[in-house]
Design brief:
Bound molecules: NADP nicotinamide-adenine-dinucleotide phosphate
CATH superfamily: NAD(P)-binding Rossmann-like Domain
Structural class: alpha/beta
Strand content: 5-15%
CATH architecture: 3-Layer(aba) Sandwich
Helix content: 40-55%
Protein name: Glucose 1-dehydrogenase
Number of strands: 7
CATH topology: Rossmann fold
Enzyme class: oxidoreductase
Oligomer: single chain
EC number: 1.1.1.47
Pfam families: adh_short_C2
Shape: globular
Radius of gyration: 17 Å
Strand order of the largest sheet: 3-2-1-4-5-6-7
GO molecular function, one term: glucose 1-dehydrogenase [NAD(P)+] activity
């Protein structure tokens, strides 16, 4: 039987690859045989990751790009197409988190969260889908969150801008999935609960928050590094050829309660 999860010969683009989940998933795609272009603002980190991917026998390209700026996104996509000639997989993962209630979030902070988490995904998709439609093939994966489905992680601080942004990601995934299926492009999302990264390290350093999380989460623990990779590889590979518009929550059972 063919390996349904094989990515040999595929070209993947991963945004938000300079740390955390994006970095893990970029390496996961490479481990399945893909060449990987990596995007973020911190170029020095991307260069190190590109070397690591190359040491795995794959090609890589580090591209400095702020996903909220259309000119930078357009130029990044052109640079990647010039080097690799195609894009098979797009992982829209760049994101920021922010706590606060609608009562006190500053307008600029609201815009920063929505611009990064939603507009960034829109701009990357806009410039990559064009090319995928021509080739009648593409796998788009969006990083959502349980916070796009539920209103609060237990009784923790409100995350209203983040809730709004990740809810938008989930329904943008449905919309894009429905529109692009006819062109052989699948669009799916992954909804993690909590994983230790730069984004979450401050909250997770708070013992009472961590205890509360572990006591509510059916699995009784945080996600471990690598536990999102199976979902990412599934959506990136032909194993998910008839699956689109879906969000797979990888959350130790959080959204099942
Ligand atoms: N960790 C969790 O528990 C968790 C749970 C649910 C969902 N998520 C989602 O997972 C994704 C990755 O988060 P993470 O936990 O891995 O956090 P992280 O370690 O803070 O990584 C965030 C990544 O996004 C990039 N980024 C932020 N703003 C950007 C911009 N304007 N342009 C380009 N890149 C930008 C950052 O790179 P630069 O700063 O170098 O640009 C970094 O690589 C996010 O979408 C987050 O919402 C995380």
């Amino acid at each position: 039987m063919n390996n349904l999860f094989d990515l040999t010969g595929k070209v993947a683009v991963v945004t938000g690859a300079s740390s955390g989940i994006g970095m893990e998933m970029a390496k996961a795609f490479a481990s399945q045989g893909a060449d990987v272009a990596i995007i973020a603002r911190r170029y020095d980190r991307l260069e190190l990751l590109a070397k690591e991917i190359e040491s795995m026998g794959r090609k890589s390209l580090a591209v400095k790009c702020d996903v909220t700026k259309e000119e930078e996104v357009k130029s990044a996509v052109t640079t990647i197409l010039d080097k690799f000639g195609k894009i098979d997989i797009l992982l829209n993962n760049a994101g920021v988190a922010s706590s606060g209630s609608v009562e006190n979030i500053e307008e600029a902070e609201w815009d920063r969260v929505i611009d990064t988490n939603v507009k960034g995904m829109f701009l990357m998709s806009k410039h990559v889908v064009k090319h995928m439609k021509e080739r009648k093939y593409g796998k788009i994966i969006n990083t959502a969150s349980i916070c796009g489905l539920i209103g609060s992680i237990g009784k923790s601080a409100p995350l209203h801008a983040y809730n709004a942004s990740k809810g938008a990601v989930i329904n943008l995934t449905r919309g894009m999935g429905a529109t692009f299926a006819q062109y052989g492009i699948t669009v799916n999302a992954i909804g993690p609960s909590l994983f230790k990264t730069e984004m979450t390290e401050r909250s997770l350093g708070n013992e009472s928050f961590l205890n509360m999380y572990n006591s509510i989460c059916p699995a009784g623990r945080l996600g471990k590094p690598g536990e999102l990779n199976g979902a990412a590889i599934y959506f990136a590979s032909d194993a998910s050829s008839y699956t689109t518009g879906q969000t797979l929550f990888v959350d130790g059972g959080w959204t099942s309660i």
